[in-house]
Amino acid sequence: MSAPTYDLGKLHGGLRLQAHKQMSTAEPIRQVPVPEQLILPLAQHAGDPAQPVVRIGEHVLKGQLIAECEGSLCAPVHASSSGTIVAIEPWPVSTRHGDSAPCIVINCDGKDTAIGADENCAAYDNLVPEDLLGNILLGGIAGLGGAVFPTAQKLMQATTCDIEYLILNGVECEPYISCDDALMREYGREVIGGAQILMHALHVGVCYIAVESDKPVAIQHLGEVLAEIDDERIAIKMVPTIYPSGGEDQLVQLVTNREVPSGGLPSDVGCLVQNVGTAAAIYNWIIKHQPLISRVTTITGDGVATPMNVEARLGTTVGDIVRFAGGYTENAEQLIIGGPMTGKSVTSDRVPLVKGTNCILVLSQTPSVRPEMPCIRCGDCAAVCPVQLLPQQLFWNTCANDEKKMRSYGLIDCIECGCCDLVCPSHIPLTASFRTAKARIREQADEKARAERARHRFEARNDRLERDQQLREEELARQKETARQAAPDAIAEILKRKQDAADED
Amino acid sequence: MEFVRREAPYLAPKADVASMMLQVLVALIPAALAHVWYFGPGFLLNLIIASIFCVGSEALMMRMRGRDPSIALADYSALVTAALLAFALPSLTPWWITATGALFAVIVAKHLYGGIGFNIFNPAMAGYVVILVAFPMEMNLWVAPRMGDIDYVNLTVLQTVVYTLSGTLPDALGFDAISRATPLDAMQSGLRTMRTYAEIRTNPMMGDFGGRGWEWIGNFFAIGGTWLLVKKIIRWQIPAGVLAGLLVPAGLMFIFDASTNASPGFHLFSGATILCAFFIATDPVSAATSPKGRFVYGVGIGFLIYAIRKWGSFADGVAFAVLLMNMATPAIDYITRPPIVGHKRGGRD
User: Fold this and answer.
1) Which of the pair, B5 or A4, is modelled with greater confidence?
2) Would you put residue B269 in left (φ > 0), alpha (ψ -120 to 50) or beta?
C-alpha cells in the first residue's frame, strides 16, 4: 500500500472550523426505503434542463431513461424506482435554478422493478476512450460534490487538454457533511475502480486521492483496497483539515502547487478533479450498469433526531429522509440543503434529494442575526480569503456598484466560501453581497448581449429593407427601360388611348 | 413545516468589534498602573475626564446624526480613544485641555467623517495634536518620575485634583519647581547644544536605555501589545514596521556617529514609541489594510518619528507621524494589493 503523503502546496488563509462530523459517522450508511412518490427535477445538473421522454400515465422501471439530454451541457435523468408518471410540473427545489423547477413526479409501485441491463460494459478496457466517454454521458452522472457539472462534458473538455493528474476529491471540508467520508469507508472499491476507468478514458498516468487528515478510517480503508488492487499509479494524499481545502481550485493548489488561472479550469494546469462519489457513480454505471439514481447523503444537525449517512433514491423528498432519520427535534428551525457555509436555505421539506445534495442540515437554534456595523478595516477577511482577495475593499466596490473596480478587485475570482463572513467583527454579510453583485453583473452582461442581438437584428432588418427597396427600384427601372426599348410603339399606343379616354370625359 | 430562510454562511460569526475594543482596553491596564505609579494619580483623572467627554460627545453626535447612540456606545471605541488620549497627556493637565482634545477627537476627527470605520485620521492623535499646538506650555509640563534618587515633587491626590480642575498649583510651588524636561526633550536640546550623547546620558533622569520610569511603562505597553498579538486583535506587521522604521535609521546613524546621535535603545524606550507601535498605529480604521501595506505604513510612521525627533522642532513625533501616514493610507492600500490567486502565475509552475 502506498503511504499517505502530505500536501505540497499551500493554501492562503482558510479557517479551522468545528467539524460536527462525528454525529453522523458513528453508524454505517443506511438505505432509505422506496418512498411513495419520487420527484425528479429535469435540471439536477449545471446547464440545460433535460427533456422528458415519458408521458403522464406511462409506467416506468427503475433505471429507465425518463429525460434525455438536450443542449451541449446536460445530463439525462433516470427513474429511481418503478412506478407511474403522474405529473410533469413545477415543484419546489433546492437547485440553483430558483425556488421551483419542472419535475417528473412518479408514484412508486413499491416493487422497485429494475430495467434489464441491455449491455455489459464491464470490459471497459476494450473500449476506445471516445466510446467510453459517450457511454458515461448516458449514465446521467454529474459532479456529486455539489457543483453537479455534467461529468461527461467535463471529461470531454479535459480530453482537449494535456492532463497529467487525476485528483479525486475526498476532502469534504465543510462542517457537518460526512457523506464522502462514509462513501470512502464503505465503497472504496467503487471509488478506486472509478479512478481506473477515468484514467483509462483520459490516458492519465497519475491519480491522487485527496482526503482530509481528519478522516483516518477512510484513509485506512482506501489504503487497504489499494493494496489489494495493487495499482501503483494511484496514491492517497492527505491534505490538512482547513476549510475550504476541498474547493476544486484550492485542492489543485494543495496537491500540485499549481494555481488554476483566473477564469480558467484545473485542466489548464494539467489537472482533472472529480469527487470521490462521482468516481464511484462512474464505476457503478460502467461496471454494474446502474445509472445515477441514488446517492449517499448526510442528514445531520441538532434539528434531526438521529443524524446519519443514508443512501437514498434521487427524488426522495427531504421530508421522507428526515422521517427515516427519526424526524425533527422539537426546535428545528432552519433547513439547509448543503453545508453550513455554502448550502442553500429552504423553507419547505418538500424539496427532493437531487444529484448535488450532499447534505441535509437541520439546525435547531439559528444564531441570532447580529446587527451589521460599519467596517473597521481590520483586514481579518483578507487574512482568511483563500484566493487572497481584499473582501473589505471589494465590499466598498459592490456597495458603489462599480463594475470595473469590482472586477479589478477580483469579484469574479471569489469562490463564495464564506470565510470572510465568519471572521468579520462587524458582521457584514460579505459573501451574500458578492453573490448578489455577481448575479447583477451576469444579468447586466446578459441584458447587454440581448440588447446587442436586438440591435443587430434591427440593423440587419433595416439593411434588408433598404436592399429590397433598392432592388425593387432597380427592377422597376430595368422593366421600364426594357419595355421602352422593346416596344416603343405599343407604349405610344397605350398613351394615346389614355389621352383619348381623357378627352371623351 | 415552514423553515426560516437565511443567506449562507449560517455559522455564527467568531468576532465582534466590542470584544476587540474591550481587549485593547484590558491590554492597556498594566501600563496604566505603571503610569500612575511613576507619574502620580493625575493619569486617572485625565482618563476619567477624557472618557466622560469622549463617550458624551459620541452619544451627542449619534443623536444629532439621527442614529441610536447605544449602537456606538456598545462598541467601546470611544473609551479606547479616551484611553489613548489620556496616555498622551502629561499627568498634570487642566480638565479643559483634556476636554478639548476629547471633543475634537470624537466630534471632528471621528463623527464629522462618518463615525467609526470612516475616519481618515486616528481620532486620539488628531485630538492630541490640536491641544499640543493650542496649549504648548501645559502640554510640556511633565513631572519627574517617582524614583528614589530623583528630586521629584510628589503632589497629593487632593493637590492633583485641584490642579486638574482649576489649573492652579499649591501656593508654594511654581511650574518650574515640579516640571522636568522629558528625556526626549533633554536629549534633543542637549544634542543641539553640542553636548555628546554620553554626556547627556549622565543626567539622573536617564535609565538603562531611555528615561527612568518611562522605559518601565514601555515594557508594560509591550506586554499588553504582545497579548493583543497572541489574541490576534492586532497583526505583527504594523508594530514590526514602526519599530523597524525607527530603529534601523537610528541604528545606522548611531553607528555612523555615536556622539551626536541617540542610540536605538534610547529611541525605543523613550517617549511614546512602544505605545505607538502596539496601540496607536494599529488602529485598523485609519491604518492600511493589506499585510504588506501595513508593514509599509508602520515603517513610514517609524521613520517619521525618527525624522521628527532628530530634525524636527517637537521632542516626540508620534502623533504627527501617525497623522501623516493616515493621509498616505489610501495610496498604500492601492499600491500594496496582494496578487489574487490565479492571477500571478498563469500556467504551470
Assistant:
1) B5
2) alpha
Please report, for chain A, the start and end positions of each structural domain, with discontinuous segments joined by +: 22-300, 380-435
> Which letter does DSSP use for residue A124 in this model?
G
Cα–Cα distances (Å) from A430 to A147, A404, A405, B148, in that order, read 21, 19, 16, 57
User: Does domain A22-300 sit in CATH 3.40.50.11540?
Assistant: yes
- Give me the residues of B, 66-105, that contact A with CB < 8 A: 71, 75
Residue A439: which region, alpha, beta or left (left: phi > 0; alpha: psi -120 to 50)? alpha
Q: Does the model's ipTM exceed the 0.90 cut?
A: no
Cα A379 to the center of its chain, rounded Å: 32
- The pTM score is 0.83
> Are B192 and B181 spatial neighbours (Cβ–Cβ below 8 Å)?
no
- Cα dihedral B145/B147/B150/B151 (nearest 10): 70
**Sheet arrangement for strand A359-363:** A30-31, A308-313, A294-300, A359-363, A334-337, A344-346
Three state DSSP letters for A318-387: HHHHHHHCCCECCCCCEEEECCCCCCEEECCCCCECCCCCCEEEEECCCCCCCCCCCCCCCCHHHHHCCC
Report the C-alpha gap between B169 and B155 in whole angstroms.
9
Least confident span in A297-311, A319-333, B190-204: B190-204
pLDDT digits (tens, 9 = 90+) for A302-329: 999 999 999 999 999 999 999 999 999 9
Residue B311 corresponds to which cell in the numbers above? 530634525
Does the distance separating the beta carbons of B13 and A374 come in below 8 Å?
no
- CA–CA distance, A395 with A328 (Å, rounded to integer): 37
Q: Does B14 touch chain A (CB under 8 A)?
A: yes
CA distance B107 to B94: 20
Q: Indicate the pairing of strand A334-337 with strand A359-363.
A: antiparallel
Q: CA B318, CA B299: separation in Å to the nearest integer?
A: 13
> Which range is most confident: A114-118, A164-168, A361-365, B312-316?
A164-168
Contacts of B118 in chain A (CB under 8 A): 374
Closest Cα of chain B to A57: distance in Å?
Answer: 30
Give the residue from B18, B13, B11 showing the smallest Cα distance to B233: B18
Question: Tell me, what's the pLDDT at B344?
Answer: 65
Opening angle at CA A458, ends A456 and A463, nearest 5: 95
Angstrom distance (rounded) from CA B218 to CA B208: 13
At B265, phi and psi to the nearest 5?
-60, -40
Classify residue A437 by its DSSP letter: H
Q: Supply the pLDDT for residue A367.
A: 63
Burial A419-456 (b: 16+ CB within 10 A, else e): bbbbbbbbbbbbbbbbbebbeebeeeeeeeeeeeeeee
Tell whether B340 lies on the interface with A, counting CB pairs under 8 A.
yes
Helix (H) or strand (E) holding A267: none
Q: How far is A347 from chain B (nearest CA, A)?
A: 4
